[in-house]
From TrEMBL:
The chain crosses the membrane at residues 24-44. Belongs to the methyltransferase superfamily. This is Methyltransferase type 11 domain-containing protein. GO terms for molecular function: methyltransferase activity. PANTHER family: OS06G0138600 PROTEIN (PTHR44067:SF3), S-ADENOSYL-L-METHIONINE-DEPENDENT METHYLTRANSFERASE SUPERFAMILY PROTEIN-RELATED (PTHR44067). It comes from Eutrema salsugineum. Keywords: Coiled coil, Glycoprotein, Membrane, Methyltransferase, Signal-anchor, Transferase, Transmembrane, Transmembrane helix. Pfam families: Methyltransf_29. Residues 67-94 form a coiled coil.
Length: 409
């Protein structure tokens, strides 16, 4: 099946078989032709009465029947392969004929013919807009999300969108409505914004239990966000050591030989790590969701870049771009070990060769969990620049490490 090269002058034009489906059809048709010829040869030569006109007629009729059967099988196979191709391309992940599908969702997901016809490289003749395949399992919620007046204000339903994301309905479809605006009051200029007070009025509190930052200050929202909206207590992080598992930012940056410029923080709470890095002229993107608090808006108010994205989504970055990745217990996506492996491989993909992976106070729920994570890290071949396993006051085991990604052939 391979490729054919036509050299014209100094250039080379290549023509490749575009899809698995077309290759399978060609193989099937070739097999059918060979089978038909073999059967015909057998039918006309295997019997002693081959010279009988009546026998000739019977043989021809029998061959014709078999040939018709083979042609029907080829036609059926072509239809099945076409259906498989559509499913692979996502054309029919959501049944748009269902009565509860909103008109905006139908319009967004309807097929669009390519202006120049079939694409010779991919074999695609139509395009549809991107939407998560798991959205089909939450079609009612998705239709609710896509119910709005075009060019009017969007419903105040960001929490509905996040619920869909957490159900793996990601990416969400785009909408033709105007999102609710909240006046951003008393925003400060950088670097004062990094540790300045954020006004309650500059945040959309709908869909949240707390309606002020004072309410959030004493709450444990996650293992790495215990009172993390109280910036007076956050100021000690990464610049003062409370235990042997805590590393100082200056010490970690020194391991990067002055080549740390951009980084990625996984589940970074209220953005304190990115704020500390900003003081060192390092730009850090903080991955977050608004689980129980307005993390995204609070981080943005500090002058830091929030990325509203679940950890089940492939990171929207090119390969080998970050100098540093920082992660703590938020890296633990729970479930089967394979789920953590998928996440770790994507983190490895976006970290540049020679870049640093800082695992900061990762909570080891069991000795087996610690061993699984250790084995996984070792399989990547990272160089251990720092590696500390210790207990905290709660007698629970934590792992902290700074690892360097190798240059792979």
């Amino acid at each position: 099946m391979g490729s054919v090269s036509l050299k014209i002058g100094d250039g080379t034009a290549r023509f490749r078989r575009s899809t698995i489906c077309s290759s399978a059809v060609n193989l099937l048709m070739l097999f059918s032709v060979v089978t038909t010829n073999l059967f015909a040869l057998y039918a006309f030569s295997s019997h002693s009465q081959a010279d009988s006109p009546l026998h000739h007629s019977n043989n021809i009729s029998l061959v014709s029947q078999h040939l018709s059967l083979i042609l029907r099988e080829i036609d059926s196979s072509q239809r099945k392969l076409a259906q498989m191709e559509k499913q692979i391309l996502g054309y029919e992940s959501i049944d748009l004929s269902r009565p509860n599908i909103g008109p905006e969702l139908k319009l967004f997901l309807q097929r669009h013919q390519l202006p120049l016809g079939k694409d010779s490289r991919t074999g695609i003749t139509e395009m549809v807009s991107s939407v998560g395949h798991s959205c089909e399992k939450s079609a009612d919620l998705l239709s609710q999300y896509m119910s709005y007046k075009v060019f009017d204000r969007c419903p105040d339903d960001w929490s509905l969108g996040q619920k869909l994301i957490l159900r793996a309905c990601e990416p969400l479809p785009r909408r033709r409505c105007l999102a609710k605006t909240v006046p951003k009051q008393d925003l400060k200029q950088s670097p004062n914004s990094l540790w300045g007070t954020v006004s309650n009025k500059s945040v959309n509190w709908s869909g949240l239990g707390c309606k002020s930052f004072d309410c959030l200050k004493g709450k444990k929202l996650s293992r790495e966000c215990v009172g993390c909206f109280d910036l007076s207590s956050e100021k000690d992080k990464f610049v003062k050591v409370k235990g042997k598992n805590d590393f100082l930012i200056d010490d970690v940056l020194s391991l990067g030989s002055g080549k740390i410029r951009i980084g990625f923080d996984i589940s970074g709470g209220s953005g304190t790590f990115a704020a500390r890095m900003a003081e060192k002229n390092v730009t850090v993107i903080t991955n977050t969701l608004n689980n129980g608090a307005p993390f995204s808006e609070f981080i943005a108010a500090r002058g830091i870049f929030p990325l509203f994205l679940s950890l089940d989504h492939r990171f929207p970055f090119h390969d080998n771009v970050f100098d540093l990745i920082h992660a703590s217990s938020g890296l633990d996506v729970e479930g089967k070990p394979e789920k953590l492996e998928f996440l770790m491989f994507d983190l490895d993909r976006v970290l540049k060769p020679g870049g640093l992976f800082w695992l900061d106070n990762f909570y080891c729920a069991s000795d087996e969990k610690k061993k699984d994570l250790t084995r996984l890290i070792e399989r990547f071949g990272y160089k251990k620049l720092k590696w500390v396993i210790g207990e905290k006051s709660d007698a629970q085991v934590y792992l902290s490490a700074v690892l360097q990604k190798p240059v792979r052939a």
